[in-house]
Amino acid sequence: MDQWEQVVVGLDNGGTANNATVLDSDGRFLVEKMVETPSRVREGPAVAVQALAESFEQILQVTGTPREAVLGIGLDTPGPASAAGVISFRGAVNFSDPEWRGFDIRSAVETRIGLPVVYNNDANAASLYAHHAHFGADAPHRSSVSLIVGTGLGGGVVEAGQVVRGAAGMAGELGHIRIPMEGLLAEGQPVPACNCGLSGDGESFASLSGIIGNLLPYWLTRYPDHELARAESIRQAAKLVRGFGEAGDPMAREIFRQQAIAIGRLFTVAANFTDPDIYFVGGGVVEAAPEFRDWFLDTVRENTDLRTEQASVETFAIVPDLDMAGARGAAIAASDALRGGRLSMAT
Ligand SMILES: [Zn+2]
Q1: 111-114: long-range contacts (C-beta < 8 A, 24 or more apart)?
Q2: How much is the mean pLDDT over the chain?
Q3: DSSP characters over 68-104
Q4: How far does the centroid of ligand 1 lie from the alpha carbon of residue 48, in Å?
Q5: What's the gap in Å between 6 CA and the centre of ligand 1?
Q6: For residues 279 and 187, is the Cβ–Cβ distance under 8 A?
Q7: Is the CB of residue 278 less than 8 Å from the CB of residue 314?
Q8: Distance (Å) of CA 92 to CA 81, 86, 195
Q9: pLDDT score for 347
Q10: Can you tell me the distance from the alpha carbon of 336 to that of 347, in angstroms, rounded to the nearest whole number?
Q11: Separation of 12 CA from ligand 1 center, angstroms?
Q12: Distances (CA, A) of 2 to 26, 31, 65, 69, 114
């Protein structure tokens, strides 16, 4: 029984699927792959909470873990949500059903499954996993900042091995910091607008939404004969930009160069704010062909202004295993919180 007494389950709730994992008391994950079930979030909170309970039951089965061995659950969802796991009253992309507004998903899952649930948003969970995977036993003594390029631009700040959440749970939202436009905008390019209502913030450049709403429409005016100008829709075209970038297409490289500069400028803020040991970049843009990935990361680094003292100690790296990082980070956070101590991930 001893080996089972302290496992923690991680549940990563996404737009289409839940992914689950189990973390034991030695800091080892009991599954090396995705264990997915449908998330059914579009059918509203009641159905989605039931789907999370099913994901929980399934991961116990897959790993042969008895329920009485589970100390608690780490849960993460896409934002925006409060630090306590209440979905934004303004609504959220993944939670379009009006019943989601202000819904306390953390408490609902806790009640449904009958175990303590520790909540993080998905970017914070992935950031925490990246931090622990990189530093192992040294994680509690290190700090990191992560930016994850997806539909939006997720951010996470980890200090002394723990996610900085903030009073309202909105710490680490680096994507919505406004950045200087000098040397970033091209000739005649309008200042990009973000879904959050700001213009010229990090996400308005470095996200799929930024490509669809801002970067691609502008760059197609500069490359009117580009193949992507003939795509079915701008949304369709936006999803193809990375493939063009990997193949060295000049227009696509302009788009990703602007994204990398935007990320570098956000990291410059971080350098002056928490001065982290490491800067992580995550998302499809760095899960690409090695030449493209390295070029992107180098461009981020070149655009991160570090002081001499910082430049000699900093590291830039990619968020590893991004598809599993949410569930794993959520489990690490729950393990830390429920054990009242800090777990070191086995490396
Ligand atoms: Zn924004």
Answers
A1: 112/49, 112/50, 112/52, 112/53, 113/52, 113/53, 113/56, 113/73
A2: 93
A3: GGEEEEEEEE-SSB-TTSBBPTT-BTTB-SGGGTT-B
A4: 27
A5: 40
A6: no
A7: yes
A8: 9, 11, 11
A9: 53
A10: 17
A11: 24
A12: 12, 19, 12, 9, 21
Q: Ligand 1 mean position to 83 CA, how many Å? A: 19
Give, as residue ranges, everything with CB less than 5 Å from ion ligand 1: 176, 194, 196, 198, 201, 203
What's the CA-to-centroid distance between 279 and ligand 1, angstroms? 20
Ligand 1 center–CA 178 separation, angstroms: 8
Q: Which two tokens stand for residue 334?
A: 């729950």
Are 170 and 88 a contacting pair, CB within 8 Å?
no
220 CA to middle of ligand 1, Å?
23
The whole-angstrom separation of Cα 324 and Cα 232 is: 32
For the chain, what's the residue count?
347
CB 104 within 8 A of CB 119: no
Output the pTM of the full model. 0.93
Instruction: Tell me, in angstroms, the distance from the centre of ligand 1 to residue 171's CA.
Output: 14
Ligand 1 center to 196 CA (angstroms): 4
Nearest Cα to 319, choosing from 202, 146, 184, 63?
146
CA of 127 to the centre of ligand 1 (A): 19
Distances (CA, A) of 76 to 80, 117, 255, 287, 309: 11, 10, 30, 22, 36
129-144 pLDDT per residue, tens: 999 999 999 999 999 9
Give pLDDT tens digits for 232-262.
999 999 999 999 999 999 999 999 999 999 9
Q: How far is the CA of 173 from the centre of ligand 1 (A)?
A: 9
d(CA 237, ligand 1 centre) in Å: 22
